[in-house]
Amino acid sequence: MSDHPSTYTPKSGIEKWLDARLPILRLAYDSFVDYPTPKNLNYWWTFGGILSLCLGIQIISGIVLAMHYVPHIDHAFDSLERIRRDVNGGWLIQFVHSNGASMFFFAVYIHMFRGLYYGSYKAPREVLWLLGCVIYFLMIATAFMGYVLPWGQMSYYGAVVITNLIGAIPLVGPSILTWLQGGFSVDQATLNRFFSLHYLLPFVIAGVVVLHVWALHVVGQNNPTGVEIKSKEDTVPFTPYATVKDAAAMILFLMLFSVFVFFMPDALGHADNYVKANPLQTPAHIVPEWYMLPFYAILRAIPDKLIGVIAMFAAIAVIFALPWLDTSKVKSMRYRPVMRWFFVLFVITCCLLGWCGGQLPEDLVFSLGTDDHGNAIGLKVVLLSQILTAYYFAFFLIIMPWIGLKEEPLPVPASISEAVLANHAKH
């Protein structure tokens, strides 16, 4: 927390000189060494550090790739092949960067679900949550623009579909569409714009991450009990306790990352994106990357184009309003048995929406036989998507406010130390 007294003591003459003029070493020590951390944090809290690692990997690998990438519609696809084949270590950098995007989103989804489960969005952490939502939105924008850069079939038609959806917005849509495309269609100007923005936005994300960490250190970390720190006995120093735990989780995460990079680097990509973009040959099925599939399923679940676009963006916007939608005074769902089940259903809903986004709308989830004309009948993907979309919005707009008022929570510990001692007593 911001009000904990500094214990940093400059030792050398250089440290004393610098501390009197720019106390950056004191700031680092107070923020990452002696910072009071709740003693009951579990491994779900390690994904904040993992996300910082992912951002660093993406920025560094992206800078190296930008040195060799050619943002031209005639050469972009071939330049990636040259990076893989002819640039020293280029294959490794390219695989790290492409798979790093998926690892980044994998970690951020776990981080967000953890925050949702333990109530990390509640007072006094509203601004902390909002900054995290801004980071997530910027990640989506950055990933979408990066998906276009390989200039394969899926890259090109993904850009066509998404930019045209933006054009459906009344009044301002056509102007934004023209600005994004740089003309009347996806072409060279579009690729130039997307490359510039894809290069710029990670540094914007890094800036918002600094604000996110700053806000975290002002209000302090949440914890599994949802009880605020009441005394020094509730905390331990950030180093070595939290840093060792974060380091162990990062090692395991990097092992998973390495499996994809070295053994199946193209497993998370679409096969059609390894075919050079051809405006005259439309792929049979246009899909975004896996981490955007839930929102794509919401878009396709609604027949009306404009309402579908609104619903897709509303699915992201509603997350921003979460601190004011939850009416419960208890933060952690550990003590909210009813809400916990709705949360489990919500996680399943998000996973199923992702699966639906990768299927054709007319496909059957399961068949109930055939009608008199021989046509297959059953629950179709589009109908399942509509049901899941309804629950997605109902969770935030109906279930969360209503359950918060009606649910009788379990007894909450008086302090973090009490919860820790009670847990040790059970074992």
UniProtKB/TrEMBL annotation:
Residue ranges constituting the Cytochrome b/b6 N-terminal region profile domain according to the UniProt record: 14-225
Binding annotation for heme b b562: 97, 198
Keywords: Electron transport, Heme, Iron, Membrane, Metal-binding, Respiratory chain, Transmembrane, Transmembrane helix, Transport
Segments forming domain Cytochrome b/b6 C-terminal region profile: 228-414
One Pfam family linked to the record: Cytochrom_B_C
TM helices/strands, residue ranges: 43-70, 91-112, 127-149, 156-179, 199-220, 241-264, 306-326, 338-357, 377-399
Protein name: Cytochrome b
Membrane topology classification: Multi-pass membrane protein
GO annotation terms (biological process): respiratory electron transport chain
